[in-house]
Amino acid sequence: MPKKQIVILTGAGISAESGLQTFRDADGLWMGYDVYEVASPRGWKKDPQLVLDFYNMRRKDVAAAKPNAAHLGLAALEKDFDITIVTQNIDDLHERAGSTNVLHLHGEIFKMRSIVDEETIYEIRGDINIGDMAKDGHQLRSHIVWFEEPVPMIEKAVKLMRNCDVFVVIGTSLQVYPAASLLHYAPSYLPKYIIDKKIPSVESSPNLHFIEKPATEGVKKLQELLSKL
Description:
The chain is α/β, with parallel strands linked by helices. Helix content is 30%, strand content 21%. A hairpin with a 2-residue loop joins strand 2 (29-30) and strand 3 (33-34).
């Protein structure tokens, strides 16, 4: 009998318990910065050094963080289910926890690319500085989807929604689009679970279950519920 296919959308809340700051818990500031100053094409044009410094700092923070029980719990689900994690996070904590099928909607902090060529991706563990050039001769930047930029992976995520058996949302405010729209693509008959320490406002729909707990506790409860399917 084939394994049930489960798609899990994760947001900053799942990594918060690993010490990585969330945007919504910072009163609209991301690590003390106006988000548009450091995560938009306008911000890059205004002060590319500031943007590079911001992501260099975030890269160090992610490198120092460790997967928590929520990341490890989702990885453990692969034993009994066909799991795909669609994450809004740019960290690699899912991968380090052992998850093998992770789709990053908003890019990855340990990757970089040319400001012109979006297709040629390079690994990066240290800092990116002004004057660091890609093979095409243009400045390198973090491989991150900024605000006001298209989200290339969203179409793949939508296709996953239409072919899964269960949809789970963990640690996201469901306010950042297009990621938040994935819930609307889940068929009405699909079991849907939302885990967050503060459940976001969503339209009522059939088969929608709320687990109002932090990610680590919520994933443990999710494991119990899924074992009964």
